[in-house]
Amino acid sequence: MTEPTPRRAPAGAAVLREDVTEAIRAAVFEELAAVGFARMSIEGIARRAGVGKTAVYRRWKSKLSLVLDLVGAFAAQGLPAPATGSLYGDVRALLEVASHALRHPVASQVIPDLLVEAARNPEIAEAVTAALLDGQQGVVTQIVREAAERGELPEDTDPGRALDLVVGPLYWRLVVVRTPLPPGYVDDLARSAVAALKA
Amino acid sequence: MTEPTPRRAPAGAAVLREDVTEAIRAAVFEELAAVGFARMSIEGIARRAGVGKTAVYRRWKSKLSLVLDLVGAFAAQGLPAPATGSLYGDVRALLEVASHALRHPVASQVIPDLLVEAARNPEIAEAVTAALLDGQQGVVTQIVREAAERGELPEDTDPGRALDLVVGPLYWRLVVVRTPLPPGYVDDLARSAVAALKA
C-alpha cells in the first residue's frame, strides 16, 4: 500500500509516506463512523488526516476504492486456518473470529453503509461482495472440504450454502437484531451449525 | 391510518383522504428506492405524491415515523400462523414467506437503509427493531412453543436464538451475499434449521 521509495530519497521519506497512509486510513474510519459512507467526502478525510486532497488521490482513485481497500483488509485479517481436526472445532474457531469482527465499528457501521450502496449499484455490489465475502468463503470452502475428507460431511456439500448456515445466524444477531450474545452463544451456535450442515 | 371523517363532510371526503394517504405511501417507496433514506425529504415525497407538505405532516410527524410505519406494516403482512402440525412444516412456511419478503424492494433496499441509521442512533435502532422483528419473533416464539408441546424441541429452547437460526441464513443469503437461491434451497434450509434447533 505504500509507494516505492525513490532511489535518492532521504532516509525518512518512506517512513513519512507510510505515516500519511496510516493517518488517512485512521481518518477514513473516523469519518465513516461519524457521517457514514454516503455523506463522507475525500475533502473531509483529508482535513481529518491533516493532509492535502492530492495525498489521498495519489493513493486511491475514489472514496469507494479507498473504503473497499480498508474493508477487504479488515475482513481478511485474522481469519483462521481450519486446522483443528474436527468440523465442530473449525466452525467454532471461525465463529469466534467472526463474533469479534462483527462487533467492530467497521462491521456494525461500515458494512451496512456499503450494502446500502450495493443495493443501488451492481458494480459496487460486486466489489463489496468480493471484499467482504471472498476470504470467509475461502475458509468455509476449505473447512467443508476437509470435513468431507474425514467423512464428517457428504462429498457434495455446497460451500455457498455452508457459508449461509455458519455465518448467517451470527450476522443476523449482531448486525440486524443487535442484542448482546448470552454466555455460551458461540459454542451453541457452532453445535447448531454443524447439525445444520449435516442435515 | 386515515383520519376520522368530519360529521358533515361531503360523501367523497373520506375516500379522497385515503387516496392522498395511499399516494403518499406509494411516493415514499419510490423515493426510498430512488434516493435512499438519508437523502429522502418530506418535500421530495410531497412533490412525487402531488400533494402539499402539510398533507404529509398532518399524517406523520417525521420521515422516520413515516418509514417505520410502512416498514412495520410490510414486515407484519403475510406472516403465517404456525399451524401445520410439525416443526418442519411451520419453519418451512415461515421461510417461504420470508424468502419472498426479503426479495421485495422494501427489504433489499429500505431495511439496509434503516440499519445504517440504526447503527448511529439507538432510538432509531429500537424503533427499527420493533417494526422489523417483533412480528417475526412472535411467530417464531409460537412455533417453538408448539413444537415443545409436541415434544419436538426441549422446553427451554430460547426463542431469540431460534429466530437467529431460522431467519439468519436466509437474510444473509438474500440481503448480504445477494445471490439467487438454487432450486430446493428453502426446503434444504428448513431441514437444516430444524436440525440446528434440535442440536
UniProtKB/TrEMBL annotation, chains A, B:
SUPFAM superfamilies: Homeodomain-like, Tetracyclin repressor-like, C-terminal domain. It comes from Streptomyces zaomyceticus. The keyword Signal does not apply. Keywords: DNA-binding, Transcription, Transcription regulation. It comes from the Bacteria. It holds the Pfam family TetR_N. Residues 41-60 bind DNA. Residues 18-78 form the HTH tetR-type domain. The keyword DNA repair does not apply. This is TetR/AcrR family transcriptional regulator.
